[in-house]
Amino acid sequence: MSDRVELIWYGDDAPPYDHGPEHPLRPAGVLVTRRLIHDYGIVDGERVVETPARSATDEELTLVHTPAYLDAVKRGGRGEQGDWGRYGFGPGDNPIFPQMHEASARVAGASLVAAEAVLTGRAEHAFNPAGGLHHAMPERASGFCVYDDPAIAIQWLLREGAERIAYVDVDVHHGDGPQAIFYRDARVLTISLHQDGRTLFPGTGFVSEVGAGEAEGTKVNLPLPPFTGDHAWLWALREVVPPLVASWKPDVLVTQLGCDTHYTDPLAQLTLTTTAYREAAALLHQLAHQSAGGRWLATGGGGYQWARVVPRAWTIYFAEMAAKNLPDELPQSWIDAARSEAGYDVPTRLSEQPVSDQASDRVVRAVVRAAKEAVFPRHGLPA
């Protein structure tokens, strides 16, 4: 059991990270997740606590992003006119919204508070559900993401003395930001399980992307075919992640826990259920203790069934971090509040009926075999 676990709360004093009412990324997802965690009683105020976030400073943001980009985010969010399209902003995925810098800096700051917690030993595990904005690049917004909070947290950890980081990304979309930012950094192992980039944004994350220079072999990708379900996805996770992370022996395990892999998610085509999230959480928890001295920094990520899936998925992960066994039946107080917020019915249980895998086992096995052949020998592991 972990000595201390922190839920990092974005805070009531910062503007919402909100692209607008028609955008698929809804800030309400984080709010209803927080409510479910509290309604279940996971936060006990003693071993499991809620810690307020702070805003990242410009100096911390420029660990990853350029000063010119920060200036564009600030000015665009104030309504100033400029050539913001060159930085990835405009109609569609990345519309400019009021106080964009302030909201984005708070998300990044929440991940930094989580990083501080695990590196200083204030807590063994820390979770920032508002984070996981893994598509932002040093000078460009992408995929709903303004500042790349996982990459900022990793750079901060390295600056503060961590020597090796393992980053595991289970979002349905390739974790392209951290991979690109650390592509030549041999101190950071990145592993991403995602839907094949030939069928989904951002169109990257192929087995051949293994890092460059001294970092060759430290970037690992599992591009899985559409309609991969619980069984095949979990098999791929178990085949690749534990041996690599155990071999790597990171100072900190950083994870991005996007749940847009769910079979009902409107933006992608993997077919996971909450069963996969429960088993992935247990695997990552065990890895944190066995390979990273218990130091586990987790962020949220994608998930566009914001009322029906996101709260259950991230509560499952956080309950595992806190070593709390939850009743399967969701608290009635949460059901009532979530139904009122969403305007439609929400699930009443954490668990779900299984969904049959529709992807070819042969294709999944070929992807895993190719990934292992590409990187395992570089880590002294049999392919």
Protein model, in words:
Strands 2-1-3-8-7-4-5-6 form an eight-stranded parallel beta sheet, with helices on both faces. Strand 7 (252-256), helix 8 (274-291) and strand 8 form a beta-alpha-beta unit. The protein contains eleven helices and eight strands. The chain has 383 residues and is an alpha/beta fold.
Keywords:
alpha/beta, 8-stranded parallel β-sheet, 8 strands
Order of helices and strands: EHEHHHEHEHEEHEHEHHH
What's the number of helices?
11
Largest sheet: 8 strands, parallel
Q: What helical percentage do the residues reach?
A: 25-40%
Count the E strands: 8
In terms of DSSP E residues, the strand content is: 5-15%
Q: Extract low-pLDDT stretches.
A: none
Summarize the entry for a quick read.
The protein has 383 residues and is α/β, with parallel strands linked by helices. It contains 11 helices and 8 strands. Helix 1 crosses helix 9, helix 1 packs antiparallel against helix 10 and helix 7 runs parallel beside helix 8.
List the helices and strands and how they pair.
Layout: E1 5-9, H1 28-39, E2 48-52, H2 58-61, H3 67-77, H4 100-120, E3 125-128, H5 149-159, E4 165-169, H6 176-181, E5 188-195, E6 219-224, H7 230-248, E7 252-256, H8 274-291, E8 296-299, H9 310-321, H10 332-342, H11 361-375
